[in-house]
Amino acid sequence: MNIDISDTKEELGRRAAADAVAQIRGAITERGTANVIVATGASQFEVLSSLASAEEIAWSRVTFFHLDEYVGMPITHGASFRRYLKERLVDQLPTSPDAFHYIDAEGNCQATCDRLGALIAEHPIDVALIGIGENGHLAFNDPPADFETEKPYLVVELDEACRQQQLGEGWFDSLDEVPTQAISMSVRQILKSSAIVCSVPDERKSIAVQGAVEGPITPDVPASILRQHPRTTLYLDRPAASRLSGE
């Protein structure tokens, strides 16, 4: 795992996006297409803004996959990750991507998992843009995460720490409003990405960052498994890196 520390969240976003842009351009040059995973949440604001403004990318040759979505969440809700990605990424691109495979978790969730799983099997991922939760989760794989399943997408239960984070970030007015289930890309599917760009700003993530970087590799800190991926770069601001040795 490579670690890149920025002085500000804005700088972090620019550096992480520049890394992703290089991976996308390289894939298009080599193969004519690129396949990208994108995350949501407050950690991705600056990253996606910089990504959308990147120049000289043939977005019509890019296929996007979506990391996770709450079960039963309508796209009209302010916390909908489909809505987030449409407004913050897709609508900001100068041209439409080849495809954007949103997770629709309003209907038959198993059918959605099966459909997306078949699609992503046909689109090897060039770069995954992800974050780490306050509880160390990857996507919505809360601790203890399933490190073994090869299912690309699955329905997961959200723990209270995860739900509290969503409340604290302002997506909901009360904890009772935060869903208890989600469809999430699995840990193993994330690790199949050729490159992983992981962006983690803010001091509130510092304990999770410390556990992911310096603790044991364990399902109790799902993000710790990123250390097993040969091309992961962890982009931090100084508050998020504040508990690391030497910082």
Mass-distribution shape: globular
Give the total of domains. Answer: 1
Low-confidence stretches: none
What percentage of the residues does DSSP assign to strands (E)? 15-25%
Q: For the CA atoms, what is the radius of gyration?
A: 17 Å
What is the CATH-assigned architecture? 3-Layer(aba) Sandwich
Structural class: alpha/beta
Largest sheet data? 7 strands, parallel
Terminal residue distance: 17 Å
Q: Counting H and I runs of at least 4 residues, what is the number of helices? A: 7
Count of extended strands: 10
Oligomerization category of the chains in this entry: single chain
Share in helix: 25-40%
Could you say what the CATH topology is called? Answer: Rossmann fold
In round numbers, the mean pLDDT is 95
Along the chain, the helix and strand elements come as EHEHEEHEHEEHEHEHE
Strand order of the largest sheet: 1-10-9-6-2-3-5
Class, according to the CATH hierarchy?
A: Alpha Beta
Overview of the molecule:
- It is a single chain.
- The chain is of the alpha/beta class.
- The protein has one domain (about 1-235): Rossmann fold (3-Layer(aba) Sandwich).
- It is about 30% helix and about 20% strand.
- The protein has seven helices and ten strands.
- It has a seven-stranded parallel sheet, with helices on one face. The protein has a three-stranded antiparallel sheet with strand order 4-8-7.
- Strand 2 (about 35-40), helix 2 (about 45-50) and strand 3 form a beta-alpha-beta unit.
- The radius of gyration is 17 Å and the shape is globular.
- The chain starts with a strand and ends in a 10-residue tail after the last strand.
- The relative contact order is 0.19.
